[in-house]
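Archive entry: two folds, one per protein. Generate the first.
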Amino acid sequence: MRTILITGASRGIGRSIATLLLSQGYHLCLAVRDPDGLRDTALDPRLHGDSLSLCRYDARDPGDAERAVQAVQQAFGALDTLIHCAGILRSTPLLFSDAQTDEPDELWSVNVKGPWLLTRAAWPALVASQTGRIQVLVSMSGKRCKGTLAGYSASKFALMGLCQAMRNEGWDQGIRVTAICPGWVNTDMARGTSPLAPELMTQPGDLASLCCQLLNLPASAVPFELAVNATLER
């Protein structure tokens, strides 16, 4: 049974993934900014015996990457799977205002550098497992740019490039990487910007099911890229 470290599991897609994986018997460590915020929820470790642990993780703090890996290894003695769900959305356009000057750096720090540093910290454990798996929630915005979200799209394109580097680096060591690229997903973040009604978007639980299925595939069948569309992409 896999031992999995998940970031961004306190809400949205990450929360749905964590809930489903727990129900199927996986060992999880949830790396979140506010572990206390999961107390008295369905993801409270007190409800799951030895199957669930929590650790503090902020993608903007480089030291938290090493601490998160240490936490999961202390809890379970191993780590063979990373699921990167932590990310932020900012409406930073190409011609951003003076008030938005810090946003490009913030997007890079959370959406690109965070997964990069955590993967680097976890790499020895993933290699040692010989069947390491990495799933990265990228977004369709890592494949094409629509509208004026220059900062967000640039960070997601960079994240897709990072996924390709992970795949290349880990292939001969049994590590398989999947870049998951959904369009509109029915989350709090999307509901504030999507033109679609919630019921027409991809549902977080459906993405969770796909992520779970990926973990059951042999190394010879794990897709590198999984695009999931709620609307037709041209």
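Generate the second and append.
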Amino acid sequence: MRTFGVEEELLLVDEHTGAPRAVAPQALAAAAGDDEPGRGQGEAAPEVAAEIHQEMLETQTRPLTSTGDLLADIVAGRERADQLVRPLGVRAAALAMSPLPVQPHPTEKERYGEMMRRYGATAHKTLVCGCHVHVGIASREEGVAVLDRIRTWLPVILALSANSPFADGADTGYASFRFLTWHQWQSAGPTEVFGSVEEYDRFERVLVDTGVILDYGMVYLDARLSHKQPTVEVRIADVCLDARDAVVLAAIVRALVDTAAEEWHAGVQPSDLPSAALRLAGWQAALTGTQGRLPHPQHGAGASIADALDALLAHIGAALEANGDLELVRDGLERIVAAGGGAGRQRAAFAVRGSLEDVVSAAVDATHELSRSGDDLSVL
């Protein structure tokens, strides 16, 4: 069974006002100086790291095979980030954008400083929090074959994760305004079919050689090969409000990778839908999330979200069953669609009193709901 892991970017918000607070440096200094015992005997504490702005922290799970263990790691990471900032009057929230106005503070790091100098408002203003799913691959050849065959399904992942309807004090009209904000970066988005490792490497090299981006770390594709570990990294998703939804996404992504690798070995050719069509599909997923129509992942024509999800389950059902994740994903999709995902839950919180502060407060509660439950998270 393939390993998978999740990186989550969490927004740091004032526990009283809900406004983002630039406290990541203090939190990480405290983390470096304490003796956090971790999750259990022999287990390391969840990894927490800086990101481009001081109003956010990144958490990282271990490479795992069990969805139950993955959920436990995600919850532990959220709780660890929250423990580090609570002494500062701050909470860690799984919000993909701040509902309230914010002027971000860049992290004091040479690379980030160069990005601020070079890219102006795109770097200074892009305070967004995503969810990155890593899935293990046997080789870079397999990884490129996987990228070629999962690309048409990625807008569905975005629709399921959409968790940023509010930004700068207003409802944006989108389910994932983070997606639009993030795609101000020059190298973000979908790709054409590569066909080989050589073509993938040439693609990355051409982008870096333009001099427009700093380095390979700024090849911000919706999915890419990791330069740090033997994984495919799917980067299209918003951070999920509900930790269970992040696990559902990870299980779907792993099954997509499994299915794509099997198709490659069987000689099944990838879809020839152009990247321009996939950009439109991503835009539509960002606009309506699970509450509207979406270009069909297999033929690209307009379809209902129900049809798109039915196609997804038909496509990856065998892999989900082999991994023991089929029931988890079916139940998770039903839950996400019923609530409208994070975007729907945020708008429901706002509808009560018309208060964005209430939206942030409800998001903090939802972020840490499973930490308070006392349930055994290793068993789903």
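Annotation attached to the second fold: The longest strand covers residues 4-14. The radius of gyration is 20 Å.
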